[in-house]
Amino acid sequence: MSYTVYALKWRPQNFDEIVGQEHIVTTLKSALEKNRLAHAYLFAGPRGVGKTSTARILAKAINCKAGPTVNPCGKCSSCVEITQGRGMDVIEIDGASNRSIDDIRTLRENVKFAPSASRFKVYVIDEVHMLTPEAFNALLKTLEEPPEFVKFIFATTHPNKVPLTILSRCQHLNFRRIPVMEIVRQLEHIIKAEKINVDKDVIFAVARSSDGSMRDAESILDQLVSFSKEKISLKDVISILGLVEQEALFEITQAMIDKDPKVSLNLLDRLIDDGKDPAVFLQDLIAHFRNLMVAKITNADPKLIDLPEEVCKKILAQAQALSLEEIFSTFNTLVITQEMAKRFDSIRIPLEIALVRLSHDKKTVHHRAPAVKEKEADVPAAEPIKHEAPKAIPKKHEHKIVEEPPVEEASAAAIYLDDVKKLWQNALEVLSKIKISVASYLGEGTPIKLEKNNLTISFPKNYSLHKESLEMKENKPLIEKTFSEILKANLKVNFILAKEESVKNDISFHPVVRSALDMFNGRVIKEE
Questions:
Q1: What is the rounded CA–CA span in Å between residue 280 and residue 271?
Q2: pTM, entire model
Q3: In terms of CATH architecture, what is 6-174?
């Protein structure tokens, strides 16, 4: 006898076996009990969460010899045929390969004929959003007024692509991603029934990697059973799927807390040597800091974190070592790194710089405003400049007076563009704690000129949205206040659009290079 994969072998056969869709089950059971079943349903949701399986169960429920019933017997000829996929009156159509108007015309002709042996004729169209506009239009009249013995069930992963004219003729049921712990419970049930020897950590790793899809989780378990000889270990899961261990996320976060960049780099190097995808690691690390935030706010509510209780406790313990501001700042840095990585052939370089930035002792570079202050003190013009009373100056000689800079401009003379560049990342971090959108937009700009307390920040010519957003009355004063406080001077900012080439030609403006310069207090040596 041929082998049956777990995804088919453990496919739910009645409403009680459907995992993670209680709201759908309750709605359909109620409709059956009250005899208020609609003539058309749209099942929408992610892949592998039970849309087609629920459609089959509903078909069995209305065609069972004991039905319509919420508990189809599964033994009568109608139930058996539908379970095996050979029911004459339950027609499953693939919307991707039967999408033309001719296919729908054939369906319209066949709809007129009564079911051969069942109570209802059921049409299940999978991935219905793949139908052409002409095919949808051809379906409209039949869908609105079908024969009383016909039921339509449409399944789709993209309900937004289904025309409103179709949606308005269907009852819309939204399937959700299945929570990790519900997948874990179902996998434990399968493992016990199949007598599989597996470590406890494996079940959680499989459930987490399935992204809310029960079918994916069952397929991964099937693959692991085929791969492993005796006992399935966490090492097997990591080897096959390239997953990042939960422990590695805790270790690298602890390195950030301990301010140990060497440990961070070694951990990343180890993960890459083990064949892990740095992009997957970065995504998992972002998710980990999301969990730290939730744990900090909700005292590690397992429902919101959706992880085993022992992992939630560990996350809470780590979250207590961080402030919310530190979590937000780290999250922002990781997201910016993710965006920055799209400009590189390799994600490793920006990821390494981000990890070192987050792990090094920021006390050495956190605020350099005192250095600016020292420069101010060294400027000879700052102290002796005193304005005489206007009455001492005859009016006829007013036009001959050489203008002297006011006191506040004297302090501006002590500020250089290089100071702004050195403190650029510090300013972005401060802004990100106040308004993250402003920090993100400003991070795409480049300080190019500082003249009489006026700082000019340039954006590439196709970044007009960034410029316009930052010039809004609620954003520009915030930026000016932040820079003024950091530089200890009354600064005004102006935003301009420049040619992309003018920004790209100066390598010191590149975010990665700028970050490295800030970290190691370095400078770019240019060759003329």
A1: 11
A2: 0.60
A3: 3-Layer(aba) Sandwich (3.40)
